[in-house]
Amino acid sequence: MCTAKTLRLIVVAGTPGTGKTTVAKRIAFKTCSELIESDKYWEELFPDPRYSASESMAVFECVAKNVEARLQRGESIIADGVFASRSRIELLNTLACRYHANFHIVVLHSSWDDALARMQLRMAASGRALTPKDRWFALKAKLEEWIGEYRPLTIDTTHCSVEDIMNSVWDALAQNPRAHD
Fold first, then answer.
1. DSSP letter at 3?
2. 4, 122, 168, 169: which has the fewest Cβ within 10 Å?
3. pLDDT tens digits for the chain (181 residues)?
4. Is there a contact between 24 and 13 (Cβ–Cβ < 8 Å)?
């Protein structure tokens, strides 16, 4: 069942294998929001991705254009992706402000071992490649550069059930429904 409609942009960010897509889908369902999965753009644009900076920028540009178009139509959005760059978070925040949408950030993190186990399950199910350990830690470091500035809801998904994670998300949204306006 959907909760009340408030125009929102909720960004679910984190390193690969932390549960972003699972959490984003649940938030989208409960809030009657549109889900924008960056993984879908990776698959469409780059069937055999190298995960280069130029590929990452192309994917983000597609995500940002889709976010803007949907906010312009008055649709609430859940955007799911790594979003490791401060400039990408700043652009999404700017779009939320432009269309008077409440802006929330949920950052999921976990241990490397837990993320690796999730990525291996995903690889078995979908054939998607594993993120190399050095790249995973580089992305984690980039995320940590902007986390203090935006004070997002951060959730450690290591050994956590999806239900526990979602309870944390709902509690945070209830306590701060107008975050980053």
1. -
2. 4
3. 455 467 899 999 999 999 999 999 999 999 899 999 999 999 899 988 888 889 999 999 999 999 999 999 999 999 999 999 999 999 999 999 999 999 999 999 999 999 999 889 888 887 777 888 999 999 999 999 998 888 888 899 998 888 998 998 888 878 765 554 4
4. no
